[in-house]
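Problem 12. The chain below contains 403 residues. Write out its predicted structure in token notation.
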Amino acid sequence: MGDETIRRIHGIYLVFNILKLAAWVVFLLLFAPVCMANGLYGAALFLSCLGLFIDLMIFRKGILPMDKENQRLLARFFMVEHCLLAAAAIFMMLRPVDGGWARLPGTHDWSDPALVSMGRGRFAAFVSVGGARRVFVTENRGAAWSDTGYPDGFGWGIHYQEARDEIWIVPRRATVVYRLHRDAGRWEEFVRPPGDNPATAMTGERFFLAAAGRLYEYFRDQDRWSLFTRAGFPVREVAAAPWAGGSSVLITGREWMENDAKGRWRYIRPAGIIVTWPYAAAGGGWRYVFQGGMLTGTLYAAAPGEGFVERRAPAPDLRILAVNPSDGSEVWAGTWGQGVFRSTDGGASWRYRGLRGIQVRSLAVDFGEGTALAGSSNLIFQRGLFLLRFGPIEVGKSDQKVR
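Solution.
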């Protein structure tokens, strides 16, 4: 290999490294402020520190294709921005949680929470603690929790059946469903239809499970599953709610399908609308389909007996909706860092209810008692469960109309 060839290879390698470094510089300059604006303060701090490291490399070694004096000047500008962002992120992480929310004592080491309201100020929380999954129950709005255990590992879906006072949990992989008889204090399992990552919904005493493109209903008295419908596509989410003397069932995936109170199935996705990962929620005759993202969120709402219309999401990274089972026009939204929001007109307008900076993975609302419980997925700061007592909407410092 000649000297000329070696020089060319070295030149290509140098250009490649300069382009890679430039891409990192642009990414850190833009993405750290985006994380800060979206309430992802931990990510903003990490990216700012990484940016400072690259700034120092530029300042000391002069590795950009420009004269050394201009590189030092540019590096100083970058360092000022990253230092300001890092300081702002630390300040926001250490400040008290806003909006009247209070972190519940004893929950600071709980992670990956799934929550369900049991009514009358009672909640159940399915969380990871000490490397294991556990189910905790409170009878007094989080003042005290009782550990009910859990017989398996990872699971996500949690439901409460009021008529029998039972908590149901569906593992992602194992083809069983676990239920806790609260009066007897024991867990039992029963076999479910096969299929990974099942989607589930419970309304009253009816329990639905979608797996492998099929939707099943479980009949407790007969201890059997019955095929409800063949969706013909992977189902992402199931939502069910009582309405007009029956139950309206909504399933979403590549298509959206709905079973109305008369038992008729129909495709309901608006023409030309594509939602990659559609989540669903329902209550009081209202149905919602939504998807969150770092820069933009998608939300569709349907009033009783009407089709879906697009709504403006209260924040881009929408993660969870909690719908009032009696009046579906009231809906609460939990987001990944941007806070919690409340709407009383089916998502046409929203009011900010605080909790900015918390990555809300799960949200349960006791509408009768005026209590909201949010589960945080923050990795270091502000982990645990947060509780808010609320009443009718009143415009104030922590309850600002945003849409």
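Discussion. Confidence is low (pLDDT under 50) at residues 394-398. Students who got a different answer should revisit the alignment rule from Section 12.3.
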